Amino acid sequence: MTMLLRSTALGLSLACLSTAAIAQIPDDTLVQAWRFDDIISLDPAEMYEISTFEVAANVYDTLVRANIDNPADVSPWLAESWDVSDDGLTYTFTLRDDVTFASGNEFTADDVAYSFQRLVALDLGPSFLIRDLGFDENNMAETLVAIDDTTFEMTVGDSYAPSYVLAVLSGANFSILDSELVASHEADGDWGNGWLDTNAAGSGAFVLDRMVPNEQIVMSRHDGYWAGDAILSRLIWRYVAESSTQRLLLEQGDVDIARNLSSDQLEPLRQNPDIELVQAPRSTQLYLGLNVANEYFADPRVREAMKYLVPYEDIVNSFLRDQWIVNQTFLPQGIFGFVDSQPYSYDPERARELLAEAGYADGFDLSVNVATRQERMDTAQAIQAALAEVNINLEIIPSDARTALGVYRAREHDIYLGTWAVDYFDPASNNSFVVNLDNAADAASNPLAWRNSWQNEALSQMALDLVLETDSEARAAGYAELIEAWQADSPFVMMFQQIDTAAVRTHVENFRMGPTSDTTWYAGVSKG
């Protein structure tokens, strides 16, 4: 089929699906209702939003892959095997020789070197993931090398724990790109970044056909996929902002899966024989980021007071029930190093004492930037009411997720209410909450600590030292100590960890959500 005919057929299919009921959705097509307004770019070297990772995980492959049941267990994928030198610095990967990209180009070690060097050179948000391994523009050509077509060699900057290095490489930011295809779309030295915002160049189980922000994402099966063809021919994500609309579409049969239903909407679906609820603990955490550039939050007593002004239990037992649990650390449950430390509870009297000590007994005005998602707006309103009890007037500034993120990344917020998920299943993935080595406005690296203008050099060094610790017991003890010190000083009010729930029509088989967005794969999903 020519590209023109294929595009025409796809357009007709989508037109039918937009008005069709379940009987008319082809058995080889999966349609989901989902909010993905956080997507800014699909480029693995730029993407840093939760929804994007699920898309990338199905159109790209990585050298190694996390186990969906035990994400700390990393398995071979595009790399068949690897060796680590005695000094712990050089990793030599032996690559598969039977892989082709969706374009038809053959996969070689040159594509790996290109993809990793590109992540360094573009120096966008996720670049710290590879820079933290010791790579930069000056050394990348000598340390990220294709030895031959099936051998890739990587020399890191220090003797890191191998489990940490491999966990990093399993994340979707380390997706392997079709270097020939991307290079053909380069413009003004951008390494194809502009084109990859809404396109893909992968070897994964599916091919990206169409991506329209806040409207639709369409993928088709990558026939001839090296790991075996996917069962479904097409995946379609429909952007549906309102949870109530998602539920209606699901019950009418206009979609197969609804991904963003509230607790109240989920409860009656439990009684529907045509729908089942699929749940998975996720690494996603809901938190408040307090900008220390704000005069009030510059005082650690005000930051601590904020941690006593969240009605944690009331929230998870009401509008977030069955979907979130309390977690006050920067590590999600299930990850190595996690400790169940919950030193804060809703205590407005203690908050008043701290505010008075800081000289703010009469309160002050603040604003919070938040995406217009029901659970986040409900959370913001609950916190707004709690702050009013101590004379803090909180203005809620709602927007789409991309706008709220833009304000946050520019450090123009008072408070940001949003989510964060690990990039890979190692505690070092969340060093972004701790490590900030350069707090300047033009700093090359912009972790979450930087976004909130907070720098604690001692805690930064503790976190960096733990990356080098190879003794598991010592590393676990180190994280317990770090978490305790961090909770007392940081500008983060960690609140909840997600239990993801999808409502799925029962004819959908083998749909699973992983603990991270890039461990939710669709190759094995089918419809009965």
Commentary on this structure:
There is one protein chain. The chain is of the alpha+beta class and 528 residues long. The protein is built from 18 helices and 19 strands. The protein has helices spanning 3-19, 50-59, 109-122, 128-131, 140-143, 162-169, 179-183, 193-196, 243-252, 263-269, 300-307, 312-316, 348-357, 374-388, 401-409, 448-451, 457-467, 472-489; strands at 29-34, 64-66, 74-76, 79-84, 90-95, 144-148, 151-155, 206-212, 216-221, 234-239, 257-258, 275-290, 324-326, 364-371, 392-399, 415-420, 492-505, 508-509, 526-527. Strands 1, 8, 9, 10, 11, 12, 13, 14, 15, 16 and 17 form an eleven-stranded mixed sheet that branches. Strands 4-5-7-6 form a four-stranded antiparallel sheet. A two-stranded antiparallel ribbon has the order 2-3. A hairpin with a 3-residue loop joins strand 8 (206-212) and strand 9. Helix 11 packs antiparallel against helix 13 (348-357). The radius of gyration is 23 Å and the shape is globular. Mean pLDDT is 93; it is low at 1-23.
